[in-house]
Automatic annotation (TrEMBL):
GO terms for molecular function: hydrolase activity; metal ion binding. It comes from Cytobacillus firmus. Gene3D superfamilies: HAD superfamily/HAD-like (3.40.50.1000), Putative phosphatase, domain 2 (1.10.150.240). Signal peptide: none annotated. This is HAD family hydrolase. PANTHER family: 6-PHOSPHOGLUCONATE PHOSPHATASE, SLL1138 PROTEIN.
């Protein structure tokens, strides 16, 4: 029986990824004349920034100033962050999970301060029994450590849990952790191909949580 649902954060609960891509692409072009394609940006979604920067270094043939780019991107992002909202249907899905008595958690490759800020901002932090971020593990997604840590703290076995993701890296982490997984891609991940064990939905409202819990737990 499914006892817990663990949500990814960036791109899943809040679509920070679309805004981040917009400002990151602008700064990269402004500083280095490099036009970052969405499909290349998407390779680093849900995992460490090193993946993306290594790709950029390789394409440019030089090592870019990562600290400078990150600081500029952060400032630009923060200046526009007021436009961010919870993804449509997320709060309703969280409510349904609570009604079913399911434990809730967050597992994110981002930093704790970042994740906690937005959970507090949207008034949903108290709804999650555990929040695991990059500070809690040696390797982030697609390594399964974040999910494993969250499950251990919640006292739930992998086969008794469901992960909600938006990215390929995140869904691979969930599958490798032995969890069931569904994906609701956003504007920057909708074109990606997911693991065969991942059930994909266009919107959170499409997820039949009652049926899914029963069906998933019997797989």
């Amino acid at each position: 029986m499914i006892k817990a649902v663990i949500f990814d954060f960036d791109g899943t609960i809040v679509d920070t990824e679309s805004l981040w891509y917009k400002v990151f692409k602008h700064i990269l072009f402004e500083d280095y004349g490099f036009d970052l394609r969405l499909e290349d940006f998407a390779k680093g979604i849900g995992t460490s920034d090193d993946i993306l920067f290594n790709y950029i270094d390789d394409k440019l043939g030089i090592k870019v100033n990562r600290k400078s780019i990150q600081e500029k991107t952060e400032r630009a992002f923060q200046s526009q962050r007021d436009i961010l909202i919870l993804r449509e249907g997320v709060q309703e899905l969280i409510g349904k999970c609570i009604e079913k008595g399911l434990k809730l958690g967050v597992a994110s490759s981002s930093g704790r301060e970042w994740v906690k800020h937005y959970l507090k901002h949207f008034g949903i932090e108290s709804l999650f029994q555990t929040v695991k971020t990059k500070e809690d593990v040696e390797k982030v997604k697609p390594d399964p450590a974040l999910y494993i840590k969250a499950l251990e703290e919640m006292g739930v076995e992998p086969e008794e849990s469901l992960a909600i993701e938006d990215s390929v890296n995140g869904s691979i982490a969930a599958v490798q952790a032995g969890m069931h997984c569904v994906a609701v891609p956003n504007d920057v991940t909708h074109f990606l191909s997911f693991h065969e064990k991942v059930n994909r939905y266009k919107a959170f409202s499409e997820i039949p949580i009652d049926e899914l819990i029963i069906w998933q737990s019997s797989r």
